Amino acid sequence: MVVKSTQFRSADAEDARGIADLHAVRWGRHFRGAYSTSFLGDDVVADRRAVWSARLAATAGTHTTVAEQGGRLVGFIHVVVDDDVMWGTLVDNLHVAHDQHWRSIGIRLLARAARLVVDRAATDAMYLWVLPQNTSAQQFHRAAGATCVETAPVAPPGGKLTRLPGTPAKLRMAWRDVSTLARRFDY
Prior knowledge:
This protein is α+β, with helices and mostly antiparallel strands.
């Protein structure tokens, strides 16, 4: 099997559709049972396209990095710099195409976000939220040095999603200091 090299770059407004489509696919795969079936089946693509068009049109305080192979978007990470006084920079989204898992794209995107935090943020702290049923994401972030520090109620985006029994909370995964992450996986 030939593995294509992966290029990383800052996203721009022209990436909105590709990012939104990958985001919608990943939500469909991991958020069944947490978000309504009708939303994930019918509304999620339009919702994500609107969100990403807006995000990439107004990027102040945020940064999005995309991973590409042969011109195909295979992953992205979006951070909100200095989002929280205590927890630091928010990793708002990190998604990799399913057929690209186990190829180090996710950790390389996360390391680039950590480097951005070290270079630009007020503190070296970084965090993200993950749903309890997304155990693979929890394992990935723990392997990258994150610790689960708290739970909080799920607040579905835009009020379009239904919180179902069995998904009462989201988990905050946090790094108090991402400098090691930035150095360890920055390749």
